[in-house]
Amino acid sequence: MAIEIKVPVLPESVADATIATWHVKAGDSVKRDQNLVDIETDKVVLEVVAPADGVIGEIMNEEGATVLGEQVIASLEEGGAAAAPASDDKQEASDDAPAASGKEVEIRVPVLPESVADATIATWHVQAGESVSRDQNLVDVETDKVVLEVVSPGDGVLAEILAEEGATVTAEEVIGKFVEGASGAAKADSAPAAESDDSDADVLSPSVRRLLAEKGIDPSNIKGSGKGGRITKEDVEKHLKAAPASSAPAAAAPEVAVAAGERSQKRVPMTRLRKTIANRLLEAKNSTAMLTTFNEVNMKPIMDLRKQYQESFEKRHGIRLGFMSFYVKAVTEALKRFPEVNASIDGDDIVYHNYFDISIAVSTPRGLVTPVLKDTDALGMAGVEKGIKELALKGRDGKLSMAELQGGNFTITNGGVFGSLMSTPIINPPQSAILGMHKIQDRPMAVNGKVEILPMMYLALSYDHRIIDGKESVGFLVTVKEMLEDPTRLLLDV
């Protein structure tokens, strides 16, 4: 049966999106919950996963195509998975004995950035004794702001884990041992009847693996209902619901056990990134005289301009024209006119910067990061869009370097993509100001004595009153408003 693969429902203030990366091709066999394609909006990247096991039929929109919410972009033929993996498993099982004696290789922490003393073992994606393939991610090692992936040096088995999750490690420390060419002991030792269960465990989807790890469940205790007995998310959820009932007869006090299950809690240590975010936000609140001023902007001129030139812009530059490039260019022009906003305090000195590096707040699965788009005054609209896209993708994948996260004279944060109507953003030290963009919402406005419905957006500028006075803050915000309401100003420099 053919299943339609659709673009997810987009945030309210986002008109369209772009196909960023297809991870599969037409004719590829895929598993349930496998990531098929990344779809990029102005600020967030959405993953579209396979709704079932099957084969990708037709891909209707290639990478770079502009798409709308719930648009059909591909088809999936359910249940058409290739039979090759089964034969591979049999071959692998028969080869276990001769391959078991391979060369042992040490798994080490990567070289850390110069300013980073140590790191934390965030997540082991494999267990000791598990078979792995070359370049498979074994473990995530987290520093204060970046996450480093340590991959398998070849095909074989992760023989031993020397540093568990949560452990603090240093650069090039040995954290595990890997045996080349070996196979998992579970397959060699298991009976033929159980062999298929082990092979199924090897192809658990990432979301199922994550759920099993979070709940501390052994996959061997769950009977899979997927193709070939594979475990699905529904199987795990069904197991969790049935767990209290099944354990009740053995429990000393059944009533207490049920109550505890209904009112459970989970204690998880803060990640290093979350600790860093918490400390910096607290530092900003405690060490600056922070104040926020507001204004609103009519987004119709920009929306009309995008509609008129979107197609030709994309053909010429190979990237979609979004709102963020307008925000960045308007802010850059305002920073030129109000140098205090582009300055910072260092002790008893004010440091004025004669360059324009703007931090772009990016929400990632691990927390908020603010990579820096450098020399925005020298970038055109296409250059800004490409720079933001690159930083957003790196942020999502945890690939941002320390150099890309350091510096920045001013920050732009866009909570509008998540539906925020108004907020008071917190300054990103040692910067002196941050601009919050919000949801674009149709509102009745008085225009030349008549009421018109216009797409309006609130702007919020939080600033350090020690260095920026009300005159400069309001003037800065009005400049941004004027630039956005009449984007021709950005071209004519008026």
Quick structural overview:
This is Dihydrolipoyllysine-residue succinyltransferase component of 2-oxoglutarate dehydrogenase complex. The chain is built from 14 helices and 27 strands.
Structure overview:
The chain is of the alpha+beta class and 494 residues long. The chain has 3 domains: 2-78, Beta Barrel (OB fold (Dihydrolipoamide Acetyltransferase, E2P)), CATH 2.40.50.100; 103-180, OB fold (Dihydrolipoamide Acetyltransferase, E2P) (Beta Barrel); 288-491, Chloramphenicol Acetyltransferase, CATH 3.30.559.10. The chain contains 14 helices and 27 strands. The strands form 7 sheets. Strands 17, 20, 23, 24, 25, 26 and 27 form a 7-stranded mixed β-sheet that branches. A hairpin with a 2-residue loop joins strand 21 and strand 22. The radius of gyration is 27 Å and the shape is globular.
Number of helices: 14
Classify the helix fraction into a percent range.
Answer: 25-40%
- Global structural class: alpha+beta
Shape: globular
Cofactor: (R)-lipoate
GO molecular function: dihydrolipoyllysine-residue succinyltransferase activity
Keywords: Acyltransferase, Lipoyl, Transferase, Tricarboxylic acid cycle
Pfam families: 2-oxoacid_dh, Biotin_lipoyl, E3_binding
